[in-house]
Specification:
Layout (H helix, E strand, L loop, with lengths): L1 H19 L1 H37 L33 E5 L10 E6 L17 E5 L12 E5 L31 H5 L22 E8 L2 E8 L8 E5 L2 E5 L2 H7 L4 E6 L3 E2 L5 E3 L5 E6 L4 E4 L8 E3 L3 E4 L3 E4 L6 E6 L3 E4 L3 E4 L7 E6 L2 E4 L3 E4 L2 E6 L2 E4 L3 E4 L5 E4 L4 E4 L3 E9 L4 E4 L3 E10 L6 E4 L3 E4 L3
Parallel strand pairs: 9-12, 10-13, 11-14, 12-15, 13-16, 14-17, 15-18, 16-19, 17-20, 18-21, 19-22, 20-23, 21-24, 22-25, 23-26, 24-27, 25-28, 26-28, 27-29, 28-30, 29-31, 30-32
Antiparallel strand pairs: 1-4, 2-3, 5-6, 6-8, 7-8, 7-9
Length: 466
């Protein structure tokens, strides 16, 4: 009974409140509506976040997709293509190593200067000098095992051989994905690099004596320190357009001269280790000089040179270039239409691998007016090139070496001194000799291939046979 009365009183009180306090009911309704609205907003945000995450994931969609079902020429995709080049005579290097041992038939007589009549090649008691006169009929040929050839293909991939590296598809679907926004990188490509000038060395120094220029390589910035005055750290100077700048790095000096008519002067010994110097701008006309006694040395890996002339012109007037690489290292490498002129100085390779070359030339131009070129195997090794020699000294130390070994190249020699096992080997080219001294321990001249020819109108020749 009491419970029933309490319930009736509660209902009556609620009725009175609903009549006398309508705002409270409205407030409760509004609070309920707000809570429902907040729940909907949270759900919308969650759904939007999921969509945003999906959109971020879709940004990485490139290549094949439902909207780009196969590769086309526009997307840039390419499978690797094999080279169709077939090696010919120019792709092989002639090797000579005499296997013959002199026997009794190789000697005509023994001459004794004191008349003591010594026999069997022995000195008489008087100790007079003797001279052995050889009558050896052995001739080095392929059949005798003295001559063979080793592969040394110099082919460079190009349009004619069909070689191509694989290329990935560059297609980016406008529906499945989108390119990442590059605006931030454009506005500040180096991040926070320049936010604090005190921490960045590319700011001009307070005394204004040194000028620092940023040289960009890839996505990194490197300092190229240069000065208008020589300092104790200066390695080389570059003079162009009447202005001389001094550099602390030979690589930076070399790069600064690219594309200009410039003179590079090396001021102290430099060891490039395995770095390379390259001329690849057809507008480059660079003259290289060094202070007296200075050597530019390096050790490039494999069949390389640290001095590469791929375009333009390089003239060497003084100094010493030394390549200490033992794996077919080259002192100077001239290719692809580059031009090298040697007026003076020394080019030397010290490695003992058969294939080390002083000056290697492929499809280039070389003019030699003086200087010295020495190598283990070949002082000068040109192929399909234009060579003119009016002076200079060319020597090798290998027992099968050549001062000059050429392939499919015309060479004009008007002077110079050539000393090796065979002073000159025409290979499959034509050599015109108008002057010079040719000294070979086995022969002054040699032509290994049927296409090798000589046109001789002058010169002095020393050798056991030609």
């Amino acid at each position: 009974m009491k419970k029933t009365e309490k319930r009736l009183l509660a209902l009556a009180l609620a009725g009175v409140l609903s009549v006398t306090m309508p705002g409270a009911v409205s407030y409760v309704r509004a609070e309920n509506e707000k809570e429902a609205s907040d729940n909907e907003t949270a759900a919308d945000k969650s759904e939007a976040s999921e969509e945003s995450q999906g959109e971020e994931n879709r940004r990485q969609v490139t290549g094949i997709c439902v909207h780009h079902t196969e590769h086309t020429a526009d997307c840039g995709y390419r499978e690797a293509q094999s080279c169709t080049h077939e090696c010919g005579p120019d792709c092989f290097r002639i090797m000579v190593n005499c296997v013959h041992t002199h026997g009794s038939d190789c000697y005509m007589e023994i001459m004794q200067t004191d008349g003591s009549g010594a026999e069997n090649g022995e000195d008489a008691s008087g100790g007079g000098e003797r001279r052995i006169v050889e009558n050896c009929s052995h001739v080095c040929t392929r059949d005798s095992g003295c001559i063979w050839q080793e592969a040394e293909c110099s082919h460079v991939h190009g349009e004619n051989c069909g070689y191509a590296e694989a290329a990935e598809c560059a297609y980016i679907c406008e529906i499945c994905g989108e390119e990442e926004d590059a605006d931030e990188e454009t506005e500040n490509p180096d991040g926070d690099l320049n936010e604090n000038p005190e921490e960045n060395p590319d700011e001009e120094s307070a005394d204004g004596e040194e000028d620092f220029t940023i040289k960009e390589t890839g996505s990194f910035n490197k300092l190229m320190a240069k000065s208008s005055e020589q300092t104790e750290n200066s390695v080389a100077s570059v003079t162009a357009d009447g202005v001389t700048e001094y550099y602390d790095s030979i690589v930076n000096a070399w790069n600064a001269a690219q594309g200009k008519t410039a003179e590079i002067r090396i001021l102290k010994d430099v060891d490039l280790e395995r770095k390379e110097l390259e001329i690849n701008d057809a507008a480059s006309n660079i003259t290289l000089e060094m202070e007296e006694g200075v050597t530019l040395s390096g050790e490039c890996a494999g069949k390389r040179s640290f001095m590469n002339v791929l375009a333009g012109s390089l003239t060497m007037k003084s100094g010493r270039i030394l390549n200490t690489n033992n794996l077919q290292g080259k002192g100077v490498d001239v290719k692809s239409g580059g031009k090298f002129i040697l007026e003076n100085g020394t080019i030397e390779t010290t490695g003992t691998d058969r294939g080390n070359v002083g000056i290697n030339v492929e499809d280039g131009t070389v003019i030699i007016r003086g200087g010295k070129v020495s190598a283990y195997s070949y002082a000068l090794n040109p192929r399909r090139s234009n060579i003119t020699i009016t002076g200079g000294e060319f020597t090798t130390s290998d027992e099968i070496g050549r001062a000059i070994l050429t392939g499919a190249t015309d060479i004009l020699i008007e002077g110079g001194y050539f000393k090796s096992v065979y002073a000159v080997d025409a290979g499959s080219g034509t050599i015109e000799i108008r002057g010079g001294i040719f000294e070979g321990s086995s022969g002054a001249l040699l032509a290994q291939y049927s296409g090798g020819n000589y046109r001789i109108s002058g010169g002095t020749f020393y050798g056991k046979g030609n």
